[in-house]
Amino acid sequence: MDLHRRERLALCPGSFDPITLGHEEIIRRALGFVDRVIVAVARHATQAKRGLFDVDERVAMIREVFADEPRVEAQAFDGLLVDFARRVGARLVVRGLRAVSDYEYEVQMALMNRALDPELETIFLPSAAEFSFLSSSLVREIAALGGDVTPFVSEPVRRRLRARFRRRDPDRPTDPTPTPGEPWRP
Ligand code: PNS
To answer: How far is it, in rounded angstroms, from Cα 186 to Cα 158?
Structure first.
C-alpha cells in the first residue's frame, strides 16, 4: 500500500431539498472510485427562495441517510463551490445527469467552475434508469399533496416530509400513506 498516496476526495454538491434516492445512488457510485465524498449543500445566499427544509435540516437528513457510511460526510457551504472545494482540498466534483435536459445546465456549471479554478474537474455520472425522472421538487410536491414518497426517498427523509406536512395542515390525517387500492384524500 502506498502510504503517501493523496486521498481521493470528491464533492457532490447540490441543493438537496431534500436528498432523494437518485442523489444517494450517485453518491454511493462515486465511492467506487474515490476514498471519500463530501456532500456539499449550498446555502444559495443569492436566492431569495427559502426552500422547504432549511440547509441545516438538509445536512442532518443526509447524515442520517449515510449514518452507515463513514466515507460520506455532509457539510453546508456559503459562497462559491470553487472556494469551498479549495478549502476542503477537493479537486473533483461529481454530478448526476438524468436526461439530455440536464446537460446544458450541467456543462455550463462545469465549464464556469473550471474557468474559476482550472484545477477543479467535474465528472458526470448517468443516473440509474429507475431514478431518471426523479427530482427533489417533484418529491416535495408529492409529499405536499399527500402522496406516497416511499419509492423515492430514504426513511429518514420520508419521516421528515411527513412531519413537515402534518405540521402545516393540522386537519390532515396523521398517516398520508394510501392503503392499497384506496386513494388517500386530504
Ligand atoms: O441541486 P442543484 O440546485 O442543481 O445544485 C446547484 C449547485 C448547488 C451545485 C450550484 O448552484 C452551486 O454550485 N452553487 C454554489 C454557488 C456557485 O458556486 N455558483 C457558481 C456555479 S457555476
So the answer is: 18
**What is the CATH code of the structural domain delimited by 9-132?**
3.40.50.620
Best CA proximity match to 163, nearest among 5, 50, 53, 65: 53
Which residue type sits at 149? Answer: V
Tens digit of each residue's pLDDT (9 = 90 or more) over 37-64: 999 999 976 666 679 999 999 999 999 9
Every domain of the chain and the residues it spans: 9-132
Integer Cα distance of 85 and 40 in angstroms: 9
> Could you tell me the pTM of the whole model?
0.88
Phi (first) and psi of residue 95, to 5 degrees: -130, 145
For this structure, is 23 an active site residue?
yes
For residue 26, report the distance from its CA to the centre of ligand 1, in Å: 17
Residue closest via CA to ligand 1's atom 19 equals 80
20 Cβ inside 6 Å of ligand 1? no
